[in-house]
Specification:
By secondary structure, the chain is mostly helical. The protein has one domain. Helices cover 75% and strands 0% of the residues. It is extended, with a radius of gyration of 21 Å. The two termini are 35 Å apart.
């Protein structure tokens, strides 16, 4: 019985092995932020010479990076809370309303929704730059996007069926 208790405690403590990965996600968030700043600074001086299409594509790239940053934050917060330890943020005025309320199932749905949004932006950028992309590239981009959309719908359906089973 004593050995079993030690083993269970070791297994439970192993969740802390993920902490370096969450620290890595903080680093990735910094990288995305720096890249966003570089792209923004690069965009501003070219605003007068750029065509409307070029500005839209550049702004979509910025929106894309914001969505990736949001995705990183969701995975960082929710993953840490669901798999490592609860965040002790009682009384902090800036705690997001969704924090502590997203379970693994909700996280999967939010992740796939973010991926679909990012894919949508990439596809829109592709269609705005249709002159520089071939039909084959646009076809692949569309196929990948449709795959993400269908995967999201199937994940949502599976979660709904799972919820009904538990009720």
């Amino acid at each position: 019985m004593h050995l079993e208790r030690i083993l269970e405690n070791a297994i439970f403590a192993s969740r802390w092995i993920q902490v370096p990965m969450y620290l890595g996600l903080i680093g990735a968030l910094l990288v995305v932020t720096v890249k966003f700043a570089i792209e923004f600074v690069h965009l501003v001086p070219q605003i007068y010479a750029a065509s409307e299409n070029d500005v839209i594509v550049a702004v979509l790239a910025l929106v894309d990076m914001v969505l990736v940053a949001n995705l990183l934050l969701m995975v960082l917060f929710s993953g840490y809370e669901n798999f490592v330890s609860k965040l002790d943020l009682k009384g902090h005025e800036d705690v997001p309303t969704w924090l502590g309320r997203i379970d693994v199932s909700g996280l999967k749905l939010r992740l796939i929704a973010s991926i679909v949004a990012i894919s949508s932006i990439q596809l829109l950028k592709g269609f705005l730059n249709v002159g520089t992309l071939g039909d084959r590239e646009l076809m692949w981009m569309t196929g990948v996007h449709i795959t993400f959309v269908v995967s999201g719908v199937l994940l949502a359906l599976m979660d709904r069926l799972s919820e009904r089973e538990h009720e």
